[in-house]
Write a structure and sequence with these properties.
Blueprint (H helix, E strand, L loop, with lengths): L3 H17 L7 E3 L2 E4 L13 H13 L6 H9 L5 E3 L6 H14 L1 E6 L7 H14 L7 E6 L4 E5 L3 H7 L13 H10 L1
Helix pairs in contact: 4-5
């Protein structure tokens, strides 16, 4: 059983660890006592260690994109990678698949599970060449690279301009209404 003094030391260590990784402080309750109160359980970059801050900057810089809210919205709109490249590398079938997926979706995330083919930029060049050989339009765009996830966001030609203008991703559809709600809404119009 912890003494009150040991509890404080234990939770101080936890609090320091949470601050180091940027999560912030949260309330701890032990045996009905509040050990310390809460601020919020959200990232607080001002309390992050310099290592964590430098890592975040280097990841953004290596992705080739600045913090563009429209590009971030496009990244989040594409929920998961639809194409995966494994340890054996890319083949003609990856090019065919990327061509078909881009024709259907305009933007596609590709997960790379191996560093065998070089950097993620090199993988983009290889897979783009395979897709163009399979009949995809020339000029497939590299929209974003996220090194921490080994993921590349490919786009159809001209999509980056549409993203900058805010035309992609499309706006969310209105929520579904029941028949009664629909009739009420029509009556008010």
């Amino acid at each position: 059983m912890f003494s009150f003094r040991n509890q404080w030391a234990f939770f101080f260590v936890i609090e320091c660890c949470l601050h180091t990784i940027g999560i912030g402080t949260m309330a701890f309750v032990l045996q009905g006592h509040h050990i310390f109160n809460t601020k919020s359980f959200v990232p607080n970059h001002s309390r992050m260690s310099s290592f964590s801050q430098n890592y975040m900057v280097s990841e953004e810089a290596s992705s080739g994109t600045e913090r563009n809210p429209n590009m971030e919205a496009a990244w989040r709109y594409i929920k998961k990678p639809l194409l995966r490249i494994g340890g054996k590398g890319a083949s003609a079938s990856h090019g065919n698949s990327l061509r078909d997926l881009l024709n259907q979706h305009e933007a596609v995330k590709v997960k790379v599970n191996s560093r065998k083919m070089g950097s993620l930029e090199d993988v983009f060049e290889i897979v783009t060449k395979l897709a163009e050989e399979a009949g995809a339009p020339e000029g497939i765009e590299l929209l974003r690279i996220r090194p921490s996830e080994n993921t590349i966001l490919f786009g159809m030609p001209g999509l980056s301009e549409r993203i900058e203008k805010g035309e992609f991703p499309p706006p969310q559809a209105e929520p579904w209404l029941s028949k009664e709600e629909y009739l009420k809404k029509k009556a008010l119009e």
